[in-house]
Design goal:
Elements (H helix, E strand, L loop, with lengths): L7 H60 L8 E8 L10 H13 L3 E10 L4 H18 L2 E11 L1 H6 L4 E4 L4 E3 L11 H7 L23 H26 L14 E3 H6 L5 E2 L2 H9 L4 E3 L6 H23 L6
Parallel strand pairs: 1-2, 1-8, 2-3, 3-4, 3-5, 4-7
Antiparallel strand pairs: 5-6
Length: about 325
């Protein structure tokens, strides 16, 4: 037997060596790739947490700075904006306006409070709350309140202005609209033409009152009209109380008509022509103007938008994964 000739066992060992090395190298690559992936996932997770922390920190900072009221001790004219629709949840809601008024009245440096109004109206409930609070704060702090109208002071906005000691307008301002409305639509004729049947079930004879797909009931219509008349009477009482002998009442005063500024002054709905600077300088005698208007918190607004975006993203992700959200 020749010792130089490799035996069977040697040949087998030599044949397996390259295969073992390849498997080992492949396994090492897979292990290292898994480790790198886990490290990347951990880094992304940490980054996400830091990002969330930064977002919530920014929201908290905006919330703090937006709700911090600076007290001004030097004599000045305090201003509270009433702009846009007067409604719950809006910037001209009773919640925001009342908070602004309290801050303005409580500041010893505020010589008077000016309501800077540019609003077409809105909720009589919100306007009533603001009107009542103005009356209460005037008595509590013995400070004058002036309303200054920019473009519009109509309906619920005038309800608020009526609580002011004096109302100043621009000659082209729109003032008035002392009335109440409730509107809607009726589709019964269209449904008949299209052959659509309304299937409505209720418990309570008046539960479907003002349903746009059902014929209007005359008794229900009369009930609504009576209710609107009562709210209108409340509005008229507030205006008469606020304007007193200055009001030159006629048949159109409480009809819902709107007048320009010059007409409003002639009718006693306003006291004179003037803007914010004029009232601060000539009437209040405090030219420095400080805005006390409390607006929707910037941080809260960002949180709402961010939350809505996240909710939409989660919904789309769930839908893409075949999950149905009902």
């Amino acid at each position: 037997m020749n010792d130089d000739f490799p035996g069977p066992s040697a040949n087998a060992s030599s044949d397996r060596t390259p295969g073992v090395a390849w498997e080992r190298a492949t396994l090492e690559k897979l292990v290292f790739a898994t480790i790198r992936e886990q490290q990347s996932a951990r880094r992304w997770k940490m980054f996400s947490r830091l990002l969330w922390l930064a977002v919530f920190g920014a929201i908290a900072w905006f919330a703090y700075t937006s709700n911090t009221t600076t007290t001004v001790s030097t004599p000045h004219t305090a201003v509270v904006d009433i702009k846009g629709e007067i409604a719950s949840g809006a910037e001209a809601s009773a919640e925001y306006v009342v908070a602004s008024l309290r801050s303005a009245f409580e500041d010893e440096g505020a010589q008077a409070v000016v309501l800077l109004i540019n609003s077409p109206g809105g909720s009589p409930v919100q306007a009533g709350i603001i009107n009542d609070e103005i009356t209460r704060l005037k008595g509590l702090h013995d400070k004058k309140v002036y309303a200054v109208v920019e473009e519009t002071c109509a309906s619920a906005a005038y309800y608020i202005a009526a609580a002011a000691d004096d109302i100043y307008v621009d000659k082209a301002s729109l003032v008035g609209s002392i009335g109440v409305l409730m509107d809607g639509f009726g589709f019964t004729g269209l449904m008949d033409k299209l052959g659509i049947e309304r299937r409505l079930m209720t418990a309570g004879a008046n539960k479907a009152m003002l349903d746009p797909f059902s014929p209007q009931d005359e008794a229900q219509k009369a009930y609504i009209q009576t209710m609107l008349g009562q709210i209108h009477a409340q509005f008229i009482e507030v205006v008469k109380k606020g304007r007193g002998d200055r009001l030159k009442e006629n048949g159109d005063t409480f009809s819902g008509l709107v007048w320009n500024g010059q007409q409003a002054v002639a009718l006693g709905l306003a006291d004179g022509l003037g803007n914010l600077d004029y009232v601060a300088r000539e009437i209040v005698k405090a030219e420095e103007i400080v805005d006390y208007t409390r607006r929707e918190n910037v941080g809260l607004r960002l949180a709402k938008r961010f939350g809505a975006s996240m909710g939409e993203g989660m919904f789309l992700a769930a839908r893409a994964a075949g999950v149905q959200l009902k």
